Amino acid sequence: MTPHKRVIAPLHQTIANIAEWYDTPLGKCVLAAEQQVLNDELSCLFGYHLMQLSVLPHHRLSESSRINHCFTLAPSVVDATRAREQLCDVQGLSELDALPLADESIDVTILHHVLEFSSNPHQVLKEAARVTVARGHIVLFAFNPISAMGLMQLCCQFFSKQAIWQRRPLRISRMRDWLEFLDFSCLGVRHVSHNLPINNARYLGHSQFAERRISNRLPLSNVYCIVARKDKVGLTPIKPAWENSRFLGAQPLPKRSMSSRSPESALILPLRRRNRIK
């Protein structure tokens, strides 16, 4: 994993600005498309505990999940009045690169754009992999740098101070390499939101018809979703070679049948009573 040269501000400093972008027409359109894909994926995932790590901690993404215990962890500080007022759904405040959870304790982990806006995305992904149980799943959302929104970011990162354009570009192939390095198998990639990044409610409303006709498997989308499963390498236990050892004259005990027909069984159970025939 090669670290990127760009310095990304800590997420707890930019999360309020990112949440404001999701209130725009373009942000609402992207979030609605992501929620639809996430609902489809969560309908096939089961377990006991679901954890959500998102740039929108006050938005409950796991409404459609069948898992009973769903909770959200957010960065330690959120400098926004609106986000602070809606933190009722957040069950814990924690740094995302040091989760206060035991190893292999979560069945499903949702990573909603937290890697692109984290100053240390490798550690965030490692922590998510650490707390996910074997055969558990990670559902990951990220902006696609090879898309219209990715091209727009190349220009806006030099002129705009909004946090949404100062994110880290993470390609799909790069994310797959990171996940496979952490013993995850990528089960599928879905592409979300093929609209042009035009922040206009009227245009986005008219383009919904074409958006529904486009398959989620077509590339060049603004956002991609990866579902990965944690597959640990199985270990085959090796039995100690006690039976073949001649140390100290130890001899293996013969394995004898204890059926009633063998004479040894009669010696062990001498008090067995027979039914008398009257």
Walk me through the structure.
With 278 residues, the protein is an alpha/beta fold. It contains nine helices and seven strands. The chain has helices at 11-21, 25-42, 81-85, 121-131, 148-159, 172-181, 201-206, 208-213, 263-268; strands at residues 49-54, 69-74, 92-93, 106-112, 132-143, 184-192, 223-230. It has a seven-stranded mixed beta sheet, with helices on both faces. The longest helix has 18 residues, at 25-42. The model has no long low-confidence stretch (mean pLDDT 81).
* Average predicted confidence as pLDDT: 81
Shape: elongated
Number of helices: 9
Strand content: 15-25%
Question: What are the secondary-structure elements, in order, as H or E?
Answer: HHEEHEEHEHHEHHEH
Largest sheet: spatial strand order: 3-2-1-4-5-7-6
The count of β-strands is 7
Strand count, sense and barrel status of the largest sheet are: 7 strands, mixed
Q: How widely separated are the two ends?
A: 86 Å
**Helical coverage, percent range:** 25-40%
Would you identify the regions where 5 or more consecutive residues have pLDDT less than 50?
none
- What is the radius of gyration computed over CA atoms, rounded to a whole number of angstroms? 28 Å
Oligomeric form = single chain
- Please identify the structural class as seen in this structure: alpha/beta
